[in-house]
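Hi everyone, sorry if this is the wrong subforum. Our group has a chain we'd like a structural model of before ordering constructs, and none of us has done structure prediction before. Sequence below.
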Amino acid sequence: MDYTGKNLVFLVGCPRSGTTWLQKLLASHPKIRSGEESHFFSLYVGPQLRAWKSQKTHHFKGGNGHAAGPPAYFHEEEFRALLKNYLLGLLKPIIDRLEPGEIFLEKTPSHALFIPEIKELLPESRFVHLVRDPRDVVVSLIAAGQTWGTTWAPTRASVAAAMWVQHVQAVQCSAMNLLGNEFFELSYERLWNFPLEALQDLARFFSVPWNSDDINLAIEANRADVMESGGTPIPVYGEVAARSGTVAKLPRGFVRKAKPNGWKSELSMRQKFKVWRVTRKTMAKAGYEWSPTDWL
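Answer:
Right subforum, don't worry. Here is the predicted structure as tokens:
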């Protein structure tokens, strides 16, 4: 119960922002382990903790007096202990495999929406946010929604743009309560244009030595044109391993053009306007802008 997440780093961002590529790059370091997306907070622990707070708040703000849900049976510290115990059970396959000095990089993009809950239960955990130009994210989301990602990815530009805003705003809000040694933000465009320097900065954030030669080997091994069928292997355990093998497999078409600014030739004028209308304010805060030539 005293586990605080000191050797856990959560890699977050809007889906299709390049988090899988960054995960593979970082997982090539001998002291950084990783695995498939866990969704431990986005689907399991996070919603339960939010539901507790919602029910408790509703009751004590003068609801109808009907104390529905766990607050009618548990004190808050008791319920949090139950959730923490549940979480530790979920984290057991991660924590138990770590050697002294190793770090686990947990990559579930939508954990971006649950940073406060993660910090509440794992106060020493850290976060890396990979942010990408929303116009490229929209193109990638639409392509996924039309092929391998039909169960979750949107196919309309406005919906995809809203997904980007939701994730980026959540991180921007949460980051205000995080210290410099707890949070690192990196743009996809910087990672693409200056991968060596970006990974050197991340190694300092992780407090692990990583020389330039080994970083360059990781960059070469995880090029966009080879990553879908190769690159740093990401291990899989449990039921999925029993059915599909012990290494994560990316679906066909997962890696597209990868190069920034592909949106300029792939978004129609109508789609550009929809993205602009939804994202322009959040884009500006994230360091992206529209220029007059972007509309041509």
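For your construct planning: The chain has a mean pLDDT of 94. The radius of gyration is 20 Å.
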